[in-house]
Amino acid sequence: MGTQISIDNLIEIVRTGGKVKTGVDVYNTRGTLLLEKDILVEKVKILEVIKENGINSLPIDPALNGGFWDENGNEIKVDGDGLITFDDSEKSARAESGGSEYDTLFEEGVLVTPADGNEVLFPDMATNEVEQRLLEIEKIKKEAGQKYKSARKSIKKVLNDIKDTGGAFDFDEVQNNVSELVDFLTVADNPFSYLTQEIFSYDDYLYNHSINVCAIGTAVVNLFNIHFSNVVDDLIKGEADPSASPAKKTDKKKNRSYTCYYKDELEDIALGFFLHDIGKILVDDTVLNKEGRLSENEFGMVRKHSYHHGIRLMDKNHLKNSVVRNIIKYHHAPLFKGEERCYPQDKSFDEIPIYVRICKLADIYDAMTSRRCYKEAINPIMVVTQLFRTYAKKDIMLQHVLHAFVKSIGIYPPGSIVFLKNGQMAYVLESDGPLVIPFTDTKANTLSSKPDPIKMNDPDTHPSLIVDSGRSVRTPKDVYDLLPAYLKTIAERP
């Protein structure tokens, strides 16, 4: 395998505008893939996440197209004395004298071999930031699809086992599956948007909803854990104003005095999110899928799925995990004094654990943004707005939860399709902003050229090019025929 290079050296290369590619896959100690061999790393965050997983050096294998380059595209070589940068004149001189098999020149964004001048796919990735992000999204979606398929198989088996046995299921198998999901959701960059799936099969709603709530809730609780732990840590050290916005906090893991949730707790919480609606398997399907308003008697039957059926299934399987039990029993409990139609009512709103509050928000969000046999999906923008109006300014802890919720899900999920005010359609590259790339003209004709991306929160963005929040967010599947080729590569096929 190639030379081991300090992760700090690689971080510094990328921080100063350079690029890195390992040529080999990088895994953590749990076997989770952190970095694929062909990814061209242009963002420091990717390397920082790897470092946080306890990896202090990475193999760089030129024989497998690995390497690193400075901000000008010049290859950085390694010899016995450490890192050496060859400038353009020295590289040209080496090329004229024959050079080594790994010497290259960088011309107009394409790497060519000095020997014959033919193009080579090295690095075989994007030549600009937008294409790079599209490639990253494609890889995340691919891994997310595998995780989703595995999780769906797991929850389907759980629910079928309960039906077949009268209540028994394999808890250990579910726990192992969820543990892998947690690794994926806490390492990848906002991956839940690629893990949650549109509900096309009404009969499968309970399977998909279980995974979606787990994905959304885990992403939210992870961000809450970072922000809130930093707030408390700063207060302990006397470095912060308790009223300061959590948005200004950063993750300072070094010398931290306080951590709200540790990794084993996060896995228990995610497990609870995955199983939160397990009791619904014991509710009559005709009631669960009824069109129109439920009668009081029917609503009473549905309510029992949490505090009665769900807890009964936990007891039947001799499961005493208090975190999972709390989520199953209380994910419909009140989050503020006087909140209506909540159950059970045996705890005050301020006694409901933070992770249960997060589960409730994730549950509501996914239920409202999913298609059902009796309703269409609601625009995510409207759902986030409604949740904020309902739960904002109720108490300080709920404010921290809401902040993490909105920051995690984003109003415009990456990979979704939005309309601009001028009628163009655009693909969302990043929810932060959001950053979008238009792909049609104002008459819904596919653009023949690739336009520059648009940052919505840029003050220079023309009013006609901002997102039209009055029109529903679409999925790539809805507009697949209109997508240009470079977007079709990462869109879901119909």
What is this entry, summarized?
The chain has 494 residues and is α+β, with helices and mostly antiparallel strands.
Describe the overall structure:
The chain has 494 residues and is an alpha+beta fold. It folds into three domains: 3-124, no CATH class; 131-409, Hypothetical protein af1432 (Orthogonal Bundle), CATH 1.10.3210.10; 417-488, no CATH class. 43% of the residues lie in helices and 10% in strands. It has helices at 7-15, 44-52, 88-96, 129-165, 171-187, 192-195, 205-236, 263-275, 285-288, 296-316, 322-330, 354-369, 380-391, 396-409, 485-488, and strands at residues 3-6, 19-21, 26-27, 33-35, 57-60, 67-69, 76-79, 82-85, 105-107, 110-112, 417-419, 425-430, 435-438, 454-455. Strands 11-12-13-14 form a four-stranded antiparallel β-sheet, covered by helices on one side. A two-stranded antiparallel sheet has the order 1-5. Strands 2-6 form a two-stranded antiparallel sheet. A hairpin with a 4-residue loop joins β12 (425-430) and β13 (435-438). Mean pLDDT is 77; it is low at 80-127, 198-202 and 247-251.
Question: How does the SSE layout of this entry go?
Answer:
Elements: E1 3-6, H1 7-15, E2 19-21, E3 26-27, E4 33-35, H2 44-52, E5 57-60, E6 67-69, E7 76-79, E8 82-85, H3 88-96, E9 105-107, E10 110-112, H4 129-165, H5 171-187, H6 192-195, H7 205-236, H8 263-275, H9 285-288, H10 296-316, H11 322-330, H12 354-369, H13 380-391, H14 396-409, E11 417-419, E12 425-430, E13 435-438, E14 454-455, H15 485-488
Antiparallel strand pairs: 1-5, 2-6, 3-4, 7-8, 9-10, 11-12, 12-13, 13-14
Helix pairs in contact: 1-2, 4-5, 4-7, 5-7, 5-8, 7-8, 7-12, 7-14, 8-11, 10-11, 12-13, 12-14
